[in-house]
Amino acid sequence: MQETLLKHPEILAAAAERLDQQDAQANQQIVNKVIADNSDFLFRDANSPRIGTEHPRLTLVVFTDYNCPYCKKFDPYLEKIVEKHPDVAVVFKFLPFRSESSLTSARDALTVWRAHPEQFMKFNHTLMAKKGYHDDASIQEAQKRAGVNVTTPDDESLVTIKRSLIIAEKMGIQGTPATLIGEGLLPGWVLFEQFDEMVSDALKNR
Fold first, then answer.
1. Given CA atoms 68, 99, 183, 30 in this order, what sign does their dihedral have?
2. Distance from C-alpha of 161 to C-alpha of 93, rounded to nearest angstrom
3. Less Cβ around it within 10 Å: N or C end of the chain?
4. Cα dist. 178→106, 117, 169, 186 in Å?
């Protein structure tokens, strides 16, 4: 047997490929179940910021962090994608993985959304524009620049973040950004053209 494998390494390669496919299928089944069990929170939660049409054919869910450098690069795509595809909506879920200021900024953003949803995107852009990690001073400066005022984040903001963290863990998300596109999960940052192509393909399957 060993001699056969040495003479025909393609057998091992084919076996490894089959195992990878089986793992991918198993992971997709897990993601599908998490989506099915949590669809209201993922796609229709009133406490989670959203942009785009009120009646979408496709809703993207973006897991993000205001201290994540790749999230800062990915964020401008979100308004661009709903402008290009009028039947798409985007929901924001925050995963404060990186530091205490990730949690503070996320809670402030969610509080702004609940109190003054029309002010959310300006505040979001201002927070994302900061190079490097936030601190209390930079978050306060972002509030000032965006024209918002959050003295104390509301309790619901923490509830929403905790639930997002639980769902992300179940889906196997270990970093940000991570974007749910239909039944597929895009980990990390890609060029806009690739992102747009994935969204277009998902729309075709709707």
1. positive
2. 7
3. N
4. 16, 23, 12, 6
Task: Of 5-9, 117-121, 144-148, 151-155, give the lowest mean pLDDT range.
Answer: 5-9
> By C-alpha distance, which of 154, 142, 177 is closest to 47?
154
Contact between 205 and 182 under an 8 Å Cβ cutoff? The reply is: yes
How many CB atoms neighbour CB 174 within 10 A? 11
Strand partners, 51: 90
- Give 52's strand partners: 89
What are the structure tokens assigned to 34, written together? 């998490």
Report pLDDT digits (tens) over 112-146.
999 999 999 999 999 999 999 999 999 999 999 99
pTM greater than 0.90 (yes/no): no
